[in-house]
Amino acid sequence: MTKPENESSTLVNSKENSPFEADKGSPDYEKILLDHPVYQYFNDLYKEHSKTNNHSSLIEENIWPTLTGETLIGRGKINFRSNSFYLIDDKFLSEYKDIDQLEKNEKNYSYTFFHLGSKLSGHQKIIHGGLLATILDEITCRLAFQNFHSKKGVTANLNINYKQPCYVDSFVLIKCETTKKTGRKCFVKGSVFKLDLNDGNLQLPTTDYIESKANLLTECECLVIEPKWVHELQNKQT
Q1: Per residue in 74-90, is it b (16+ CB within 10 Å) or e — as a string?
Q2: Which of 54, 137, 205, 229 is deepest in the core (most CB within 10 A)?
Q3: CB neighbour list of residue 147: distance below 8 Å, 6 or more residues apart
Q4: What InterPro entries does the database record attribute to this sequence (predicted)?
């Protein structure tokens, strides 16, 4: 399996962590995505960024939520979740200064791929909005944590706008971007984009096409805070 170099695995449904055994006839969503030029393109973006920003390649996930890591994993649920590609400039990972807004050439964002199955529906054949909210909450927080010295925090506010239906049995790309940081407060924008790997119009480079208004399904703004009692948070299971 290909993954960002030196990054701790975030494949919550990897063979080692999966609570179920896949049917022999089930699609291999991991192979389908990782072999596709779209994933390889984002993997190359990550590798290129890491050449001059070594801190991004050293990021390790330090929370293992039971809800998205166990309960919602399985056939027809979260069928696959990729490693997160963190493209964060070293200065944000070492200085922890306030951010008024990102300059055009600055990077402080992440990409994560999911395949969402039919058992996650609310309306028929449409992914439940609460599921998308849960995933966005978790992934935006993971990015915000990287901007705190403690690498920990909690959600204070989450505002979500649903733009288009997110259909079951589909891949999605979630992009999170830090927009502002003031002291113990970090604001992160999260976006869920439709990812049709069979789209004949999909061409490289893909960022402008995938991150277009036509593909935007859901977006949010998450306020994450580093509480004064942050030392009491136990993120990693022992």
Answers
A1: beebbbbbbbbbbbbbe
A2: 137
A3: 92, 93, 96, 99, 108, 178, 181, 186
A4: HotDog_dom_sf (IPR029069), PTE-AB_protein (IPR052061), Thioestr_dom (IPR006683)
29 contact partners, CB below 8 Å, separation of at least 6: 79, 80, 115, 171
Task: Using DSSP, state whether 184 is helix, strand or coil.
Answer: coil
Token reading at 171: 């891949």
pLDDT at residue 19 is higher than 70: no
| Rounded CA separation 28/78 (Å) | 13
Token pair listed for 35:
């072999």
The pLDDT of 11-27, averaged and rounded, is 45
Q: Which residues pair with 78 in a beta bridge?
A: 73, 116
**pLDDT band at residue 204 using 50, 70 and 90 as cut-offs:** low
Token match 């927080």: residue? 141
Give the pair of three-digit tokens for residue 117. 């199955």
Q: Which fold has domain 29-232?
A: Thiol Ester Dehydrase; Chain A (3.10.129)
Report the alpha-carbon distance of residue 158 to residue 220 in Å, rounded.
7
Report which residue type is found at 82.
Answer: S
Cβ 32 vs Cβ 197: under 8 Å: yes
Tokens of 233: 């948070």
